[in-house]
Design brief:
- With 986 residues, this protein is an alpha/beta fold.
- The protein has 40 helices and 24 strands.
- Helix 5 crosses helix 10, helix 6 runs parallel beside helix 26 and helix 31 packs across helix 32.
Length: 986
């Protein structure tokens, strides 16, 4: 009985005699291996073990073996021989337990802090994976750790200690250590490297000692354990072990191969065929050539595969496509697949799409034509690229920012709204999440206390859970797990797979803490979980023997396809750019035979050239964009095909169609629906009406008026932390209203105002009023930082205004923030609602004044003081003069509203100051210097204004006049509808 339990896999073959006859050379590599063993009638499959580089190649081999067994022996059923991957074989032979990577890093950390006790675990975690990878390489390549981690005190030590190295290797070691003699006291980098280097040997020993006590190991340790035990007795293994499809075994794997070869039990099949793969000038052959010579095959498959070194494949056809987009490559792939199907592609399983850049997986899956049916994905998709990763990080940001808030528990508006905007929140609770976000913005909630009505009033259990007050780390873990379970019940498809993988990660970390008796702090916990999940890839499982094959670069090992489409064939992506993260410098890696970037380049080149070797059609797509992030350079592999091997590569370029922009203005016709909305808004009882702002909007751009007032489109409200001109204006208006409120209907004396500006008690009172308004407008509890500056500016503006008002006193303060509503009869068939908010009404200097506060204002606008000299009211309604007259139009609008409401006849205290009110513009920033002269419009100007306004409103309600875009491009610069309108400003 062998060490493996024989898995009884029954192959039901549907293969007909005709389909067997249609098979032609060259065969797929795995089929060729299956054929030579099926035709060997003396071979005992039950005593054999086939070893492969990955699991997908096992599936295809089993399929081919069943078909070839039936072809050669006329038997349709076969008990499958034992198969395994190389990593599973070593794990089984070692008898060790494969340790969890996070547990390994924690154990290594406990060893490390014996030397450097001040290092935190989360900081150590950021680079400890690199250290374990180096230990992994040292073990896999059977390097003596004492030799590589030795601390050279004198270069003469090298002559005796490293005599087994070649002259080239010894030269590399000398080059490295010479750089450290002497060490410059100011060279911080060298000093830190040497301090780390000096502890690596004891760290390695202690770390592996603890793992030995646990009966566990990382992959390299497991491999070394097997390799070093080969001379201590025959391992429990099959009578015949066949290695299939390897190209760059490590020394531990080579040691096992040597042992089995010497005992007569090993057989080896290398996919080393074709001109380009076997070319000594090509890095693809750099490693495999040596192994193919050292471990030859017992059965010749070169004729079956159709190639031998020095022969070529005349049927290969190459197409290279430059695509100026990353995601665009997925759409080009869709077109290629559709064309292949039109050309008669019978079975999608013979077509593979290879993704060196795994971030393109989701765009590709969304682009594959539906009629392709089954799509088998055997590659990992980075969790970091999913909506779930973004959602969980938004949860982390919510807790992190809450801890930084006043009191340490309030939710910061930016992190709260960012969480509410997450895709998964929108899927789970679309309506309430939107309404809560709108309320936070509307009320300008910078911080939201858990006891705030916004939180306590939540109806959704899911949203309540998201905003539940935090506890300790254990409570946080349970909170995350509960949220993930809720998501699992509310999502579907791949989203649930992402949730499951994240759930496993959180649970594993929680269990690990329990096992180790160690608890992270909250900050550390979130950092660690974020780092772990950012490196996690989510495996997509499918039936590998059906449908279109989608895989990563490594998954192509040993597999052949008729059609192969490779995306991201860019220099720096395929092959990947050099990024050797290691504490072992290049010189030492080279000297001791550890993998270097040349090794990785060779492996990558082999994967590329082997994968295209037997394909009938090869499509190579690359991102042709050239910007700050990338060069748009095609891979060296494409250049080699074209220039080194002189192959006829068809070069294509894919580009999106660009439609010419036109100057035709967008317009909205006044259909029945539009007229119905218009009438409802301005003639109904819904509270709407024409304001001065609405009239000015129509003059500026009729299309904008339609979108904003007829369809109700508005810019999304956002919480404002920065105090811009608009917010400062709101603070000033609120301050002036609160300040004058006690004098409503009363006379204000000069000394009353001056006491607020000059007296200590009055100034303190004034400051309190302004500060209260700052807190109210900004919805904050404490004025500090930039808000303190805003409060001081607002106070200065209020003081300047009061000083000017003191020069007018005594005056009667009538009312502030006065709202007026009225009905205007436009013509016999039309009456519309009107509304206005007047900042202030007072009686000063014998005139009832309508005062409008302005903190800003362009220099080219006409001041109200110049109204008496104006020649034509129609200029107010001229779009080309909009910027110049919009403030004047607003003031005239106020006068008209007092006439319509009868306010001009209302005189507080029985005093009579004449019927027509004066209009006054307070330009606050220069009010003390220039003052504000009231102007009383005459009857002729007011009549003209009313006529022009009625003409404009009649035009608005005219079905024959569409709402068109403005003719003045300057009005578009700051318009919120620019993207919708598509109007060019230049």
């Amino acid at each position: 009985m062998s060490m493996f339990t024989i898995v009884k896999i029954l192959f039901f073959l549907t293969m007909t005699e005709n389909s067997v006859k249609k098979m032609r050379y060259p065969l797929e590599f795995l089929r060729a291996v299956a054929r030579v063993f099926s035709e060997d009638m003396s071979f005992d499959f039950e005593k054999a073990l086939f070893v492969f580089p990955n699991r997908r190649s096992i599936k295809f081999f089993q399929k081919y073996l069943g078909e070839e067994f039936a072809r050669a022996r006329g038997i349709r059923t076969l008990f499958s021989p034992d198969t395994t991957t190389i990593s599973d074989l070593f794990l089984k032979l070692s008898g060790l337990k494969d340790i969890d990577p996070i547990e390994a890093q924690y154990i290594l950390y406990k060893c490390y802090i014996r030397f450097y006790p001040d290092e935190s675990f989360e900081d150590f975690l950021s680079w400890s994976g690199m250290l374990i990878n180096d230990f992994n390489d040292i073990d896999k390549y059977l390097i003596d750790p004492e030799q590589i981690f030795t601390n050279i005190k004198d270069l003469r030590q090298l002559d005796g200690s490293f005599s087994y190295l070649s002259e080239a290797q010894l030269k590399a070691v000398r080059t490295f250590w010479r750089d450290f003699f002497p060490i410059d006291d100011d060279n911080f980098k060298k000093k830190n490297f040497k301090s780390l280097w000096e502890i690596l040997l004891p760290l390695y020993r202690e770390f592996n000692g603890r793992l030995d006590e646990m009966g566990a190991g990382y992959e390299g340790r497991i491999y070394r354990h097997v390799a070093e035990s080969l001379g201590n007795g025959d391992p429990d293994i099959h009578d015949s072990v066949i290695f299939v499809g390897f190209n760059a075994p490590c020394l531990c794997e080579e040691a096992l191969m040597k042992y089995l070869k010497s005992s007569g039990r090993g057989d080896f099949y290398w996919d080393y065929f074709g001109d380009m793969v076997a070319d000594p000038r090509n890095r693809a052959s750099l490693i495999i050539r040596n192994y193919a010579e050292k471990f030859p095959s017992q059965k010749d498959i070169s004729v079956l595969c159709g190639f031998g070194p020095g022969t070529g494949n005349a049927e290969e056809k190459y197409t290279c496509v430059a695509v100026p987009s990353g995601v665009g490559q997925a759409f080009v792939t869709k077109r290629i697949l559709e064309d292949l199907k039109k050309e008669g592609m019978e079975n999608p399983i013979k077509t593979a799409v290879v993704l060196p850049d795994e971030k393109l997986l989701m765009p590709l899956l969304l682009s594959i034509p539906p009629d392709f049916g089954t799509v088998n994905v055997t590659m990992g998709y980075p969790l970091k690229g999913t909506s779930l990763y973004s959602f969980m990080n938004a949860l982390y940001a919510l807790r992190r920012d809450a801890a930084r808030s006043p009191g340490g528990k309030s939710f910061y508006h930016a992190s709260a709204t960012a969480l509410l905007d997450q895709e998964y929140v929108k899927k789970m609770e679309p309506e309430e999440s939107s309404s809560i976000k709108a309320r936070i913005n509307r009320e300008n909630k910078i911080y939201i206390n858990p006891e705030d009505g916004i939180i306590t009033g939540l109806k959704s259990d899911f949203l309540k859970m998201l905003f539940r007050p935090a506890g300790d780390v254990k409570a946080i873990e349970l909170w995350q797990i509960e949220i993930l379970r809720q998501l699992d019940g509310g999502l579907s498809g791949r989203d649930r797979e992402f949730v499951y993988q994240y759930y496993k990660c959180v649970s594993r970390l929680a269990n690990l803490q329990e096992k180790l008796g160690f608890r992270f702090g909250m900050k550390s916990y979130f950092r660690i979980i974020s780092r772990i999940t950012s490196r996690l890839t989510v495996p997509f499982r499918g039936e590998p023997l059906k449908g279109l094959q989608v895989m990563g670069e490594l998954e192509t090992r040993a597999l052949d396809f008729d059609n192969i489409i490779i995306l991201s064939v860019n220099e720096g992506t395929f092959p990947k750019e050099r990024s050797d993260q290691s504490v072992i410098p290049y010189a030492l890696r080279f000297a001791f035979g550890l993998p270097t970037y040349e090794f990785k380049d060779s492996v990558s080149a082999y994967h590329f050239y082997r994968s295209i070797c037997r394909a009938k059609k090869v499509f190579l797509l690359y991102d042709a964009r050239s910007d700050d992030m990338q060069t748009g350079e095609e891979s060296r592999y494409i250049k080699q095909l074209k220039y080194q091997y002189k192959l006829p590569v068809r070069q294509l370029s894919a580009a999106a169609a660009v439609l010419p922009q036109t100057e035709s203005l967008i317009s909205i016709s006044k259909t029945g629906e539009v007229m119905e909305r218009l009438e409802k808004q301005f003639t109904g009882t819904g509270g709407g009406g024409f304001s001065a702002t609405a009239v000015n909007t129509y003059i500026s751009c009729p299309l904008k008026f339609c979108l904003e007032y007829v369809y109700g489109l508005r810019e999304a409200e956002e919480v404002t932390e920065n105090v811009d001109g608009s917010i400062l204006g709101n603070i000033f208006h609120e301050s002036m209203k609160n300040l004058y409120e006690p004098w409503e209907g009363k006379t204000v004396a000069s000394e009353d105002l001056l006491s607020l500006v000059k007296g200590a008690e009055g100034r303190a009172s004034l400051k309190n009023i302004v500060n209260g308004c700052v807190k109210k407008v900004l919805n904050i509890k404490k004025i500090e930082g930039k808000y303190l500056i805003a409060a001081r500016i607002a106070l200065k503006y209020v003081e300047d205004t009061l000083e000017y008002d003191a020069t007018l006193a005594p005056f009667l303060y009538v009312e502030g923030e006065k709202k007026l509503c009225a009905c205007l009869r436009v013509n016999q068939a039309l009456s519309v609602n009107m509304k206005a908010f007047i900042d202030r009404i007072d009686l000063a200097g014998g005139i009832k004044r309508l005062v409008d506060y302005k903190l800003g204002g362009a220099a080219n606008r006409v001041d109200v003081e110049a109204l008496a000299k104006l020649g034509s009211v129609p200029d107010f309604f001229d779009s080309s003069k909009f910027d110049k007259y919009r403030e004047v139009l607003q003031l005239f609008f106020y006068v008209l509203m007092t006439e319509l409401t009868g306010l001009e006849d209302s005189v507080p205290g029985g005093n009579s100051y004449g019927r027509k009110p004066g209009i006054v513009l307070y330009r606050i920033r220069r009010i003390r210097d220039t003052g504000a002269v009231p102007v009383v419009p005459d009857d002729e100007m007011l009549a003209a204004f009313r006529d022009e306004l009625c003409k404009l409103i009649s035009e608005i309600f005219d079905p024959g006049v569409p709402f068109s875009g403005c003719s003045e491009k300057g009005h578009c610069i700051y318009c919120q509808f620019r993207d919708l309108c598509k109007r060019r400003e230049s």
